[in-house]
Specification:
Oligomer: single chain
Radius of gyration: 18 Å
Distance between the termini: 30 Å
Number of domains: 1
Number of helices: 12
Helix content: over 70%
Largest sheet: none
Structural class: mainly alpha
């Protein structure tokens, strides 16, 4: 490990932990309220926190071009959030997180289609192993006598991975045009505005503890995104990206402590296969130096 990368690596680990805690917090309330309300309240809290950080950064207010760029991505973030919150409400936390690890493969395919980036031959093998990992997790659900195979939950997790990847590619397409805090803030504000009409129509007043959960989730999400944003502009993505798979460890631990979920052997094996495929694909990609104008591939939820 190069000494100059030690701090970004530690900050990346902190960011993954904060986002994992946010996932657990949102799982505790996702099944209790309509989906639009869950999304709206999560991003309302995120908008408040990110706007406060934006004001302290003393950046200029985003112009019309920035609003247009980030509105399209906000639609994708909305779809990502909806599918992710559906997945964690229906699946054990570790299962849902494991399935979203397929996002790098979707990113590679979308980057080829939208940006013309080449797809290395070894990535095709990685995609095959990733799909095998998904099948192993699904087989574990089918073999569990206490739970039926949740096709909707698995489909939602895979849909989340796809839209997560699409969001990443949209950031790449406009790399350097907006700062990380502007991206996070505008995403939160736009998603809130998009979800608001449906949220208001089906409003169910949350309890005081649940309001607190939404508020804490907004804080954790914004802080986690900014940790990753800071790190990815200071160290190679290949070095830091592997650390994001530590989310499975946190998901397993939080799932056990908070929800009494014990990952099955199928989940552990499936996650191992998916992570191994992603890491192999990552290290097979050509390396380049760190460009301070690069945008981090931030989790959009």
């Amino acid at each position: 490990m190069r000494g100059v990368w030690r701090k970004p690596i530690l900050i990346t680990g902190l960011g993954v932990l904060l986002l994992s805690c946010m996932d657990a917090a949102m799982k505790s309330v996702s099944a209790a309220y309509p989906l639009a309300e869950v999304i709206g309240l999560r991003y309302a809290a995120g908008a408040v926190v990110s706007f406060a950080v934006f004001r302290t950064s003393r950046e200029a207010l985003p112009g019309r071009s920035a609003l247009k760029r980030n509105l399209l991505r906000a639609v994708v973030v909305l779809l990502t959030a909806g599918s992710f919150f559906t997945a964690i409400a229906r699946l054990p936390l570790a299962d849902a997180i494991s399935l979203t690890f397929l996002a790098p493969f979707f990113t590679a395919v979308l980057a080829f289609l939208m940006l013309g980036e080449p797809v290395a031959s070894h990535l095709k093998l990685g995609i095959l192993f990733g799909l095998i990992g998904v099948c192993i997790i699904g087989a574990g659900q089918r073999s569990d006598a206490n739970h039926a195979l949740d096709v909707v939950g698995i489909g939602a997790a895979l849909t989340c991975a796809f839209f997560y990847a699409l969001s990443n590619v949209l950031i790449r397409r406009t790399a350097g045009a907006d700062s990380s805090i502007v991206i996070v803030m505008l995403s939160s504000v736009f998603v809130l505005l998009l979800a608001a009409p449906v949220m208001i129509a089906g409003w169910q007043t949350p309890t005081a503890p649940h309001f607190a959960v939404f508020a804490v989730s907004g804080l954790l999400g914004t802080a986690g995104h900014l940790c990753l944003a800071w790190s990815y502009t200071r160290a190679p993505a290949g070095t830091l990206g592997v650390l994001e798979y530590s989310a499975f460890v946190w998901a397993s631990l939080l799932g056990f402590l908070v929800f009494g979920e014990v990952p099955s052997a199928f989940t552990l094996l499936g996650a191992l296969v998916i992570v191994a495929a992603c890491v192999l694909s990552t290290f097979g990609q050509p390396r380049r130096g760190v460009d301070p104008t690069d945008q981090p591939l931030m989790p959009p939820v």
